[in-house]
Amino acid sequence: MPRSASIPLPEMHAFRSVCLALAAAAAAPAMPAAASPELARARLCTSCHPAQGKLVGPGFREIAARYAGQHDAAARLADKIRAGGAGAWGVVPMPANPKVTPQEARQLADWVLATK
Fold it and tell me: Domain containing 50: what range?
């Protein structure tokens, strides 16, 4: 059998480092996405809520303005994101969104409330 070519030591260390980094990333628990427009789109919030104005539901800016200055706004809004609601913004009810985790709901609520 022919002898295989050896890999120079610096390249071997670099390769090993990449392999270890990939293994560590694969083994790490998945982190929830930070609240952002991307998370709002992924959880279908933007299907009904635009940044401003009204689509089916109120825009994020209008929601932020209504809840401004309320000490429990983030917790109340996070609950509403998961459980849904009716009557606060008109006759169209907001359906429950149980696929949104409590942590994601709080991240989304914080993000919406920071919308200017």
Answer: 37-114
